[in-house]
Design a protein that fits this description.
Layout (H helix, E strand, L loop, with lengths): L2 E5 L3 H11 L4 E5 L7 H5 L8 E2 L3 H4 L3 E3 L5 H6 L2 H10 L4 E4 L5 E4 L4 H14 L3 E3 L4 E7 L2 E7 L4 E3 L2 E4 L14 H8 L8 E3 L3 E3 L11 E11 L2 E11 L3 E3 L1 H14 L4 E6 L6 H9 L6 H5 L5 H10 L12 H12 L1 E8 L7 E3 L7 E2 L4 E2 L5 E3 L7 E2 L4 H16 L1
Helix pairs in contact: 1-6, 1-13, 9-12
Keywords: FAD, Flavoprotein
Organism: Romboutsia lituseburensis DSM 797
Cofactor: FAD
């Protein structure tokens, strides 16, 4: 039996503590906050998108950074294993097949997940220390032997699992402090970028579209001749773009826009051709153009587009071919210049962290410091929205816990 300290009581830390305790280890779970799962509590707008119901093989295409690193974690503790675990612990969930197969609690309350994990921690005799900020790890002869607490207290252990998260949602305690601690001990911390975050747009007229929401659009760009395209819902904001499709898209372009501007193309009707839109515009020659387009796009959007194009609404038979082409181009290929993002404080996930080259993916142990393990967002791994990041947290936490 080993003494194990887990630093960070988010989903990966709680799962690591539970799986380690079930292997008959003495486990201490430490968190700087006054409660367990502070960030978990606010995920999914408080609904908590626990995982996704797709085949586990499909998860890899949803991972943006270092997907190969996750093979052992995902296959050791799959989404089906997680759902079985929820069932065994009495948590009812639902699968929203209409919503990208996302899995939520039946009650839409993230607190139920936290309560279930807390109950399992208690049942397995995990000692929980809250309001305790770890300010250093204790290393001797290239092996970790414990941690230092802010008040000067030292806690010794045979194994230490770091589950402190990244730099997103800093108000929940994940301020990236652990990166600096690990850098002292020769761990490489890759550059930190915001992931799953709203993006900013250079064009000033974007403010005129503020608050307009669009469904099933395609956002695309080219980076070094590679096309990146995401289809989904989006929302115009005074600063640029947000919404599910934009958040996903941001994770694929975040490293590029950190230093460069990027031309975006938005197709608001990806399933309707240019010719079909032209035919719709001309469908009723004696009706106004806005009227003809009413069935396929929101009127408030179309009115703003006409205003931006400096066009007045007129009957279809009075519209010039040149103006028709402008309307169609704005619908099928609106060009915008992305000049950044809203930053790490508004991002749902951190891109960057401890280099995966320095972690053994088969057990989550450091290749630099013996008996030191890592889980979740503190590692340089991130994925699109849809429950994939939480599955990464649970899978890596479980693997680290059974490996100590």
């Amino acid at each position: 039996m080993a003494k194990v300290i887990v630093v960070g009581a988010g989903p990966s830390g709680m799962m690591a503590a539970i799986s380690a305790s079930k292997n008959n280890h003495e486990v201490i779970l430490i968190d700087r906050n006054e409660e367990l799962g502070k960030k978990l509590k606010v995920t999914g707008g408080g609904r908590c998108n626990i995982t996704n119901n797709r085949d586990i093989e499909d998860f890899f295409e949803k991972v943006v950074t270092n997907k190969k690193f996750l093979y052992s974690s995902f296959y050791t503790f799959t989404n089906m294993n997680l759902l079985s675990y929820l069932e065994q612990n009495g948590l009812e969930y639902k699968v929203e097949d209409f919503n990208d197969h996302k899995v939520y609690t039946k009650s839409d309350k993230s607190e139920e997940v936290i309560d279930m994990l807390r109950h399992d921690l208690t049942k397995n005799k995990v000692k929980i220390l809250l309001n305790k900020k770890v300010v250093d790890i204790i290393v001797e002869n290239d092996s970790v032997i414990g941690v230092k607490i802010e008040d000067g207290e030292k806690l010794l252990a045979d194994k230490v699992i770091i589950s402190t998260g990244g730099k997103s949602y800093p108000h929940t305690g994940s301020d990236g402090m652990m990166y600096e601690i690990l850098r002292k001990y020769n761990h490489t911390i890759t550059k930190i970028y915001p992931a799953l975050t709203p993006i900013t747009v250079k064009e000033g007229w974007i403010k005129n579209l503020q608050g307009i929401s669009m469904q099933n659009v395609e956002i695309s760009c080219k980076i070094k001749k590679k096309k990146i395209a995401i289809i989904g819902d989006m929302l115009f904001a005074h600063f640029g773009l947000t919404g599910p499709a934009v958040l996903k898209f941001s994770s694929h372009i975040n490293k590029y826009i950190d230093e460069n501007e990027l031309e975006l193309n938005i197709d608001f009707l990806p399933n309707i051709s240019v010719d079909e839109i032209s035919n719709t515009i001309r469908e009723n020659p004696n009706k106004n153009v806005l009227n003809n387009l009413k069935g396929i796009l929101p009127q408030n959007f179309l009115k703003e587009v006409f205003s931006i194009l400096e066009l007045t609404d007129k009957k279809a038979n009075e519209l010039t071919k040149s103006d028709e082409n402008k309307i169609v181009e704005s619908i099928k290929n609106m060009k915008l210049t992305c000049n950044g993002s809203k930053g790490i404080k508004t991002s749902q996930v951190t891109c960057g962290g401890i280099s995966v080259k320095e972690i053994n993916s088969s057990n989550m142990e450091s290749k630099i410091i013996n008996n030191l393990f890592f889980t979740g967002e503190v590692i340089d791994i991130d994925a699109e929205t849809g429950g994939y990041n939480l599955q990464i947290a649970f899978s890596t936490g479980y693997l680290a816990g059974i490996s100590v």
